[in-house]
Structures are given as C-alpha cells and as structure tokens.
Amino acid sequence: MQKAIQDALNEQINREFYASYLYLAMAAHFEAQSLDGFAGWMYAQSEEEYGHAMRILKYMLERGAQVELKAIAAPPEEFGSPLDIFKQALAHEQHVTQAIHALYKLAAEHEDYPTMKHLDWFIEEQVEEEDTVGRIVDRLQMAGDDRAALLMLDSELAQRSGEEESDEA
Ligand code: FEO
User: Fold this and answer.
1) What does the pLDDT read at residue 110?
2) Any binding-site annotation on 45?
C-alpha cells in the first residue's frame, strides 16, 4: 500500500475512534439526565464507530500496511440540549463523510482499487448515518420545548437502539 493511502487510513481510524469516544460522552451525558433512550442510542452508535475503526484496521492488516494508533482527542465535557447534541452529531457525521470522500479521491488518484472498493461500504454507511441523525434532529426540532414529546422520542429511540444492536456491521 502506498504511504499516502496508509497515512490517510490511519487518520481515518483515529477519526472513527474519536467518533466512538464522542458518542460515548454523549451517551453518558444522556444517561446522567435519565434520558435512557437517547443514551442507549448513543451507546449503540459509539459501538458502531468502534466497529468502523476496526473495519479499516483489519483491512490495512490484510493489505500488509502499517497500522498506527494515534492519540484520541478528549470529547467535550459539557453538552447542551438534546437538540444541540444531535445537531453536533450530525455536523460530526458530515465531517466524517467529507473525510471518507477525500480518502476515496486519494485512493482513485493513486489507482488503489482495493481501497476504493473497501471505501464503498463507508460511503453508503455515511448516507445512512446522516439520514438517521438528520431525522432525529428534525423530530427534536418539532418537539421544541414540549417535554412530553421529548420523552416520547426518548422511548422511541430506546426501541431503535435495540434493533440496531442486532444488525450491527
Ligand atoms: Fe463512522 Fe458515523 O461514521
């Protein structure tokens, strides 16, 4: 594997671990506030992100590339409202999507076809993730200051996180 691709994939592993850490911090925040459905959703999301990092790590090893685990930045210690948090999650997913697209472009420039193929899964996954988080943002916006609506959404997400755990990638 060419050095530029190896470096970029190592960066992406770090980005995925950071996402896992960020969602874990959000999960802990929600659990501390007794919003167990939001917390469960975020715990599941955090595990998914760990899975994304591992998917790249395993791929690199298959290709005989050198894996470099870099320091994971600390996530924020304080968070705003549920709407703020999900907006932050959406912005993070958009950032990850851009990074995946840049990686794909780099792989194409270097004619690294196996890496392009490997990244296909991530490109599709990002479409799904942005859609899922975007819908939660919409629902939270509709709920506004209505606490009953917020609790209903919390219960709904509790069911959803259970479903997602069973078909984890
Ligand atoms: Fe691994 Fe949510 O992107």
Assistant:
1) 98
2) no
